Amino acid sequence: MSSTNPSAKGNPSDKDRVVIFDTTLRDGEQCPGATMTHEEKLEVAQLLDDMGVDVIEAGFPIASEGDFAAVHEIAKRSKNAVICGLARAGFADIDRCAEAIKPARRKRIHTFISTSPVHMKYKLQKEPHEVYEMVIAQVTRARGYTDDVEWSAEDATRTEHDFLCRCVEAAIKAGATTINIPDTVGYTVPEEYFALIRMLRERVPNADKARFSTHCHNDLGMAVANSLAGVKAGARQIECTINGIGERAGNAALEEVVMAMRVRNDVLPFWTGINTTMLTRASKLVSAATSFPVQYNKAIVGRNAFAHESGIHQDGMLKNAQTYEIMTPESVGVKQTSLVMGKHSGRHAFMHKLEELGYHLAGNQLEDAFVRFKALADRKKQIYDEDIEALVDEEIAHAHDRVKVLSLTVIAGTQGPQSATLTLDIDGKHVTTQAFGNGPVDATFKAIRALVPHEAVLELYQVHAVTEGTDAQAEVSVRLSENGRAVTARGADLDTLVASAKAYLGALNKLMSRRGRAAAAERRIHSTEVG
Ligand code: KIV
Ligand code: ZN
Predict the structure, then answer these.
(1) Which of the listed residues 151, 164, 184, 188 should we mutate to test ligand 1's pocket, taking the one with most ligand atoms within 8 A of CB?
(2) Domain spans in the chain, listed from the N-terminal domain onward
(3) Which range has the top average pLDDT, 8-22, 374-388, 424-438, 455-469?
(4) Cα–Cα distance between 407 and 494 in angstroms, integer?
(5) CATH architecture group of domain 19-289
(6) How much distance in Å is there from the Cα of 499 to the middle of ligand 1?
(7) C-alpha to C-alpha distances, 16 to 10, 274, 298, 327, nearest whole angstrom
(8) pLDDT digits (tens, 9 = 90+) for 397-409
């Protein structure tokens, strides 16, 4: 059994079914550095749909041309999931959102406004009665486009109860079918959040006409606990993200809420439609697309989540896995790390392995990945699943890069200065330079800066080994920021410095494509103004 339907223990009832609303592509993607390309967003959305996510919040269409295009394309390609877009209270937001989700078979508009005193006074600069009127207007406008409208009271956990009840009642009356109660600043605790949801369900006269939803941020590390407390109090939708990515400390992690309800179904008797064996794949894909590494000890999907290091634990595990394992690795899609293939493995075996790991490559992308696999197998004796994942993730992430590393020679060691001689392919043109630096990484990045002049600032540089052993591939993460916006990228290679150059260039390519999109949008606006 892979979904979290507890049918093994009795008949699941619809009243205990929790809707999983994934906001990885909206709240997750809007956090600093987690930007995904258009293609990456489509791939993540497809996986979420295949995994059984009920609602995919695909973006914030009015925020940018890129967001609009991604929501629109995801809406076109959606199979089962409801495709949702976010909109503020203004009609322009709602109209743009409706346009973006139009092609979806099942569509939702999610519209929100702040209701807490601090947000109304300083952020909106509006009186409560004005906000109240806007709630009615925004929901009514959204209902003109679809029957499925979600309304959120931003900063609900710091909102006065009487006012929150009035707004919720008005939103339901105007046609909202889902009422979301966000803990926007990650401030609440489980008992308090439980009481808030219960209070709303008891006091709002038409509460039974809508589904209540949780949306908890993790600033105090309680997003998952708070979400589950909300469900216990009667909420039947959880808003969450893969790996818990999101604003600041992130959102409730999808894999954690889903597995908590599955593993502790005795005390959390609820179920979801998620195919849990896809959780690990989803985590890896989102990590690769955003270049946000997953913390080693992260619940459910961290690489140590099923590792048993101490002798006592290993002994217990050998006697009976239940001694130290509360869920099986297979139930979340972890396969035992296997020695997969070597240099004699052919194209067929490679394709089979990709399918097994959940990748669907075709055409040039498959060909390029195979060539790179063969090159790696020539240099590395033992190739593990993780090696192939690093290689393919990189292939997907860098497929559309304008600037690529062709060769790098570095002189390092105790006798400085260290130097790097680098040749890049920039839009098909080959250029070379040599640079000196304080250490080989500094020299390499200076060479890149000389060949591709830019103002972006390096905010993060991180290295980790993909597998064990001194011949392991290095995976490097780099975050660059420009004009207050950050992007992160990863590069993998047997050579740490080549991986570093690839990661740096990956981030630079993302910045360049963002600049290109911004310029194109400006040209479009200009031509409509002129025309
Ligand atoms: O955290 C929050 O309040 C949000 C809303 C837009 C739902 O993300
Ligand atoms: Zn949020």
Answers:
(1) 184
(2) 19-289, 337-397, 403-518
(3) 424-438
(4) 14
(5) Alpha-Beta Barrel (3.20)
(6) 36
(7) 12, 14, 27, 22
(8) 777 789 999 999 9
